[in-house]
Amino acid sequence: MINTKVNLAGVILKNPVMTASGTFGSGAEYAEFVNLNQLGAVVTKGVASVPWEGNPTPRIAEVYGGMLNAVGLQNPGIDRFVERDIPFLAKYDTKIMVNVCGRTTEDYCEVVERLADQPVDLLEINISCPNVKEGGIAFGQDPKAVEEITQEVKKVAKQPVVMKLSPNVTSIGEMAKAAEAGGADVISLINTLTGMKIDIHKRAFALANRTGGLSGPAIHPVAVRMVYEAAHAVKIPIIGMGGIASAEDAIEMILAGATAIAVGTANFYNPTATIEIAGGIREYMEQYGIQDIQELVGAVG
Questions:
Q1: Straight-line distance from the first to the last Cα atom of the chain, in angstroms, rounded to the nearest whole number
Q2: Is residue 300 part of a domain?
């Protein structure tokens, strides 16, 4: 009997495959293509305390090996999310992880408190947001800020807290340790890498924001390396993401030390990617006679 169940801070997922925030809406727009019951978890788009309009357009650009996005975490705010999205996801036999964003520590804590009595399983805290009180540097680029915001969120959270780490740092291991020191139950990585594209014919930036987050296959080797480094820096579980487009990519991430994985950009060009990857992991386990997926986690040491 093959066991694909994984444990994230006491939350048991039927398999390690989940969606990456911002690439799957909150599930409804993909439900006609994907049987959400077959996923380990659905991770929602980022949710803030009030609606965010996001950045001006154009805010998506295709690049070699992936895409750039500067959507700016556009979202309808926590009130609408609680009223519309949670009831939809609650109908399915999958775990729900809510991605939380904010511009101040208070913003994050307000959303986390609102979710305390909601039927959601995990909270993913997106600390790649610019900290307005510190001059705009992202929370996730300063280890002291990572530890402090983790501590504050943990004080009010009723669900396990997943800190989503930015790769735009000197040492991902240091950031992972800071999240763990602050009390994080799980960490997820990597968020997008900062990139830029220039249209040579218009001699102008392809994105109104000038820079955007690079995602897709191009960042996968960087993500694998960072997951490996983080896994050797902390004891808490890791959700690995970054350019996962196939079961092979997912297994590579698990071997590097990820307990679970999230599929992002691949959803845009292959809506059934998550289901295919879940099936591919099971096939790999059958092929190599692996009974329990835990045998693979961090197996390449």
A1: 26
A2: no
